[in-house]
Amino acid sequence: MPVKEEIEAFAEDMAAWRRDIHAHPETAFEERRTADIVAEKLATFGIDVHRGLAKTGVVGTLSVGTANRAIGLRADLDALDVLEENEFAHASTIPGKMHACGHDGHTAMLLGAAKYLAETRRFDGTVRFIFQPAEENEAGGRVMCEDGLFDLFPVEAVYGMHNQPGLPLGKFGVRAGAAMASADMFTITVHGKGSHAAHPHQGADPILTGAEIVAGLQRVVSRSTNPVQAAVVSVTQFHAGTNMNVIPESATIKGTCRALNREVQDMIEARVTQLASGIATAHGLTAEVIYDRRYPVLVNSEEETLCSARAAAAVVGVENVDTDHPPTMGSEDFAWMLLERTGAYIRVGNGEGVDGGCVVHNSRYDFNDKAAVYGASYWAELVEQELPLG
Ligand SMILES: [Zn+2]
Ligand SMILES: [Zn+2]
Hints:
This protein is α/β, with parallel strands linked by helices. 37% of the residues lie in helices and 26% in strands. It is built from twelve helices and 16 strands. The protein has an eight-stranded mixed β-sheet, sandwiched between helices. Strand 1 and strand 2 (58-64) form a beta hairpin. Helix 3 runs parallel beside helix 4 and helix 4 (103-120) packs across helix 12. The longest helix has 21 residues, at 262-282. The mean pLDDT is 97. One zinc ion is lined by residues 101, 136, 360-361. Residues 101, 103, 135, 162 line the site of one zinc ion (ZN).
């Protein structure tokens, strides 16, 4: 029987687990209830459970047969600080927290695959089920690596998956090479000299200079980046002043930068710093720049991308797997795991329209339970293909 038909039998289970997790969202490093559920289910399936990596991370290990090979399958556990506006029965019960990125679905479908693999055992080798905390903003994937994930649980390759609203149900997308951008943050503090607003010549205005810096930063992409390469510099905050007739002492500008390769990322960091201080200096002020590299570029290896596409094709047919899926300037902390092990990150369609088309991080988003069957089947196929019976 095809894997997908067997996984269909777990569809209701996965939907129930997913909806329970959805109703009880937990954010970065606080995923205790969610981790308890994951650990308890893995143990019930007969899978060895290890807890505590990156605080709330859970790693399940299932070894079958004699082969000395191992692969890792990774899901994320965390929710977001978003006030849910959905009114269905499984809506968030915790005001201000919501599974708005579908990590509830990612957790449920990896559990579904674990249940299937533990029952059917049609592979030879070791599967590591990696449930990481804090994918959003706090780099739980990096912390798991720092806590020794791949030393304690060696794998040859590691695979990740994310749902994609707008991509029809039953379709997958993946690409070799850079698939998601690096994400950096910057804070520029412009130090001037406060004065009466009616006597600007007696001060040094950080607001006007800050405004020039915001405009100047637009040159990084338009004038310093090779036009055939992708980059983003977005200013997202500008804070200064408290009074209508006072020129303040300082202004603070914050934002984020994205790139699809390391050289562009390096160039952006250098240019942001240079522009901010140069413009401030030109007006007799100073600019202090804190440039914080957060998530690296996510790079899928050629070989594992092929493995990934092959497994997806076994579930939905080769015509439903886009192997040239467009890269995005969003970022993903699975990129940290891909710095330590070769692997691939695939997209599974969350559907179009009301069912699954609402964008991630929106307060009305919901993971599409129908996508879990495809996702779990993909995981199962991947294991059976990559760790074949002798
Ligand atoms: Zn997200
Ligand atoms: Zn996500």
